[in-house]
Amino acid sequence: MNNNKTDIYNELILKDWTTNINDNENSLVQYNELPTYETFIRECLLKNRPALFTAKCGLMNQWSCITEWLNKDRTEPDFDRLINLYGHMTVPVTKCSLNITEYNTDENKLTMRFDEFVNLWRNNETASEYYCKDWHLQKMSDETKSLFYTIPIYFQSDWLNEKCLAENEDDFRFVYMGGNGTNTPVHMDVLGTYSWSANICGQKRWRFSKPYSIEFIQQPGDILFVPSEWYHDVTNIGYTISINHNWFNAFNIFRIWKHLCLILDDIEHRIEDCRSIMSDTWYEHCQLILQANEGMNFPSLYKLLYIIAQRRLKENNNEQTKFDLWMIDKLIQNMLHTTAFLHACDFDTFPQRPKALLKQIHSFIEKQKQ
Q1: What is the DSSP string of 163-185?
Q2: Rounded distance between C-alpha atoms, residue 228 and residue 193, angstroms
Q3: How is this protein annotated for GO cellular component (predicted)?
Q4: Residues 128, 272: contact at Cβ < 8 Å?
Q5: Does the N-terminal or the C-terminal CB of the chain have fewer CB atoms within 10 Å?
Q6: Cβ distance 8 to 39 under 8 Å?
Q7: Residue 346: alpha-carbon gap to chain centroid
């Protein structure tokens, strides 16, 4: 962050975050040199615009997985070493097929030992059929050991994984390994989150289709930032390994809230005919379906906001901390004006009632002004 960081946060606090949240910039930013964090905020986070950090930026130069997972030339996986490291683990595998175009269908999912997957992966006859994806490798490994990669500063403000790790829940940090032609069909990332994807080896053909059409090849050493709610499909070229995170923070939290509200509206419409026979539990039932479908509902989103707020209240005062708290405050106030939130949530079951949390945040912010 440069010396103007206070100015950027002052601008952010003055911004209207509740309207025009569907705005998107229709081009891909390519960085061949590392930008400041403020530049990334202005060019990508505020514009919800994709960005490619090329290998020239050197963001992956010191990652231990580069030397541990690849051959001496660092061009392909070291299959035998990977088996020695992780062969005993059970991994999620997707069976790719030209006949399956729907994202995340259960019919093509299976699990197997990692050494079994590698034998299919390295076999030319089956390499294009089996794709190890959404593998929680870091979570399954010894958490006391350091990451086999370093999260770039641009993606470190990550409320989703921060909450998951604090609560010892399944996280949204994944490893992907697949052969030539393995793919992920068109989809939007879970909850409309951001994602970032670091290519360890091989290439990936990315095609954004909504809100704008953009197609490009991601090279080894490149890291891609995918904005909220951008639909895309991805095809691997050659033996490919990548590390991916889904995440959100203060910059897209209102998009997450909007996404949950839209999905809830659809749920309520679909089961409207049941409303008369379950009037007392209607809102609660809709929230249960929302949680089952999206992995989050209004109460669980509030719990996440509470956890992040409490962690920020204990941190050293800085502009990012104040901005996070300011956005949490603004969103909770918005939630308190939403009928479904008021009817579906029993505030007595919350770790702290919303108005009490708002009072705590306001007190903290006022003290920082003194």
Answers
A1: HHHHTT---SEEEEEE-TT-EEE
A2: 5
A3: cytoplasm; nucleus
A4: no
A5: C
A6: no
A7: 28
* Residue position matching structure tokens 């080896």: 201
Which superfamily does 23-247 belong to?
Cupin (2.60.120.650)
CA separation for the pair 189, 256 (Å, rounded): 11
Q: Provide the strand spans (E) within 79-179.
A: 90-95, 109-113, 130-135, 173-178
Q: Which residues of 257-291 are buried (b: 16+ CB within 10 A; e: fewer)?
A: bbbbbebbeebbeeeeeeeeeeeeebbebbbebbe
- Stated as kind and residue range, the H or E segment containing 29 is strand 29-31
Asked if residue 50 lies in contact with residue 225, where contact means CB atoms within 8 angstroms, the answer is yes
Element (H, E) at 275: none
Structural tokens at position 202: 């091989």
pTM of the model: 0.93
**Dihedrals phi, psi of 352, to nearest 5 degrees:** -160, 135
Instruction: Specify the length of the chain in residues.
Output: 370
Sign of the alpha-carbon dihedral angle for 274, 277, 283, 288: negative
CA-CA-CA-CA torsion sign (367, 368, 369, 370): positive
How is residue 296 written in tokens? 């989050």
Joined together, the tokens standing for residue 55 give 């290998």
Q: What tokens appear for 358 in the block? A: 């708002």
For the chain, 370 residues long, give each residue's pLDDT as a single digit of tens.
344 566 888 889 888 888 777 778 889 999 999 999 999 999 999 999 999 999 999 999 999 999 999 999 999 999 999 999 999 999 999 999 766 566 666 678 999 999 999 999 999 999 999 999 999 998 888 665 678 999 999 999 999 999 999 999 999 999 999 999 999 999 999 999 999 999 999 999 999 999 999 999 999 999 999 999 999 999 999 999 999 999 999 999 999 999 999 999 999 999 998 888 887 888 999 999 999 999 999 999 999 999 999 999 998 778 899 999 999 999 999 999 999 999 889 999 999 999 999 999 999 988 877 6
Domain ranges of the chain: 23-247, 253-369
CB 362 within 8 A of CB 322: no
Residues 6+ apart with CB under 8 A from 299: 287, 344, 345, 349, 350
